Amino acid sequence: MLFMMTNSRYVPRTINPPEGSYFLLGPRGTGKSTWLLHQYPKALRIDLLLGEEERRYSAYPERIRDVAAALPRGSTLILDEIQRVPKLLPEIHALIEEKRGIQYIMTGSSSRKLRRSVSDLLGGRALLRRMGPFMASELKEEFSLEKALKIGLIPLIWESTDAADRLRDYLHLYLKEEVQAEGLVRQFGDFSRFLEVASFSHGSIWTSMDISRESSVKRATVDNYLRILEDLLLAFTLPVFTRRAKRKLIAHSKFYFFDAGIYRILRPQGILDSSSEIEGLALEGLVAQHLQNWVLAQNQPHSLSFWRTQTKLEVDFIIYGPKGFWAIEVKRSPNLGPDDVRPLLAFKEEYPEATCLFVAPGKRKEVIRGFPIIPMEEFLLKLTPENPIYSTDFLT
Fold first, then answer.
1. Is the full-model pTM beyond 0.85?
2. Phi/psi at 319 (5° precision)
3. What per-residue confidence (pLDDT) applies to 4?
4. Cβ neighbours of residue 162 under 8 Å, at least 6 residues apart?
5. Nearest Cα to 307, choosing from 364, 245, 257?
6. 377 and 290 in contact (C-beta within 8 Å)?
7. Lowest-confidence region among 110-124, 313-327, 344-358, 372-386
8. 3-class state of residue 6 by DSSP
9. Cα–Cα distance, 151 to 53 (Å, whole number)
C-alpha cells in the first residue's frame, strides 16, 4: 500500500507495488513522486525533469550503469519522468536482465515515447502500475461529491486552497511543457481550440469529423490530437461492448477527460450553456474516472466499455472480466421513469448474465423493475479495487 501526504496526514492509495522492477505511469500531480518517497525512503532518485540530469543522461545514457554498479544488492533506484530520456530504457532493460539485485522504478506522465520500451521491459519482467486521481474510497470521510464535481480529484488540486487557479496552472503546465516544448503539435493555437471543442464531447460519442468541422482543424490532425491526449494520459476513450451482440451497434467510441476538474476548466460556460447539462456530464465523467481507476488497478484484465444500439438505446458503462459482468447507468436525478429503464431492460434481455444497476444522486436506495438504484456518493465510496464493482450489500 502506498501513501500520499495531504492536509497533514497520510492518505492510503490502493496500489500494490510489485517486489521487482516496474513502471509507474500517471498524469502529473497525481502524486507518483511523493508516494515513492514515502514507500522507498532509502531509494536513490534521479529526477529527469531537472535540466542538468536530463542533459547528463541524454548525452551518455550508459552512465546509469555506473550508478547501478555503486548500489548495494537490494537497493532501489527511481527514475522520475523516464520519458524525458527514453535512451535510458535499453540500458535499464539490460541491467534488469543481468539480475544484479537492484529494483528499478520508472515513473512517467506520458506514454508517447515509452510505448515500445514499456512493452520490451514488461517482457523483461518489469511490470506496469497506473496512478490516477484520488478515488472516493481513498479519501473516505474527506470526500465530497460536490467538491469533486467542481475541482476534480487530482491530488495536487484537491489539496489546494485556490483550486480554480491551480487547475488553470496545471493545464498551462501540460500545454507548455508536454505539448509545446516537446513539439508535439505544429500549430499550438489549433490544439488549444481543439481542446475547447473536445470539452463538448466529454461523456459523448467521439466523431472526428464533427470535431474537425467545429475546431477548423483537419480530420487527420484531430485524430493525432486525440492520440496526444491519450498518450499524455489526459483523456481516454471507451469502445462499444460487442461480445455476442445481437442488435446492431454503433462503431464510434465514447470520450472522457481523465478528471472531472479538467473537464470543468476546459468547458466554456456562458448564458447559452445549460448548467444542468454540464453538471450531468461532470457527474458521468466522475463515475467514468473511478471505473477506469478500478479497471487499471486489477491484476487480471478487465474491460471498460459502453453499449449503444443504432436505435439509440445506451448503457453508460459495461465492466467485463474475471471478477464480474456489470452494466451501469448514471442518472442526473434519482427520480426515474419508464424511459430511463428501457436501455437496461434491453441490455439485460441480451445479456441475462449481467448485473445491471443505476447510480444516481440522492440518499435513497430503491429498486425499479428489478434494478437497484444506488446513491452516487455511496457507490463511489464503496468502490475499491479489491472489491467487485457492485454486490448486494450496497442495498443494506
1. yes
2. -115, 125
3. 44
4. none
5. 245
6. no
7. 110-124
8. strand
9. 33
User: Domain boundaries in the chain?
Assistant: 2-130, 136-395
Cell 543522461 sits on residue: 57
Strands 44-47 and 76-80: parallel
- Give the pLDDT confidence score for residue 21 in this predicted structure: 92
Q: How is residue 236 written as a grid cell? A: 481516454
pLDDT in tens, 169-207: 888 887 777 777 666 777 878 888 999 999 999 999 999
Name the grid cell of 206.
467521439
Q: How far apart are CA 63 and CA 230, in angstroms?
A: 32
Note the CATH number of domain 2-130. 3.40.50.300
Tell me the pLDDT tens digit for each residue of 339-375.
899 999 999 999 999 999 999 998 888 899 999 999 9
Beta-bridge partner residues of 308: 314
Helices (H), the chain: 32-39, 51-59, 63-69, 88-97, 115-123, 136-139, 145-151, 155-158, 163-173, 188-199, 208-215, 219-231, 260-266, 275-296, 338-350, 376-382
Q: At what angle do helices 88-97 and 115-123 cross, to 10 degrees?
A: 10
pLDDT tens-digit readout, 16-73: 888 899 999 999 889 898 889 889 999 999 999 999 999 999 999 999 999 999 999 9
The whole-angstrom separation of Cα 53 and Cα 59 is 10
Q: Is 369 helix (H, G, I), strand (E, B) or coil?
A: coil
Angle, nearest 10°, between helix axes 208-215 and 219-231?
Answer: 110
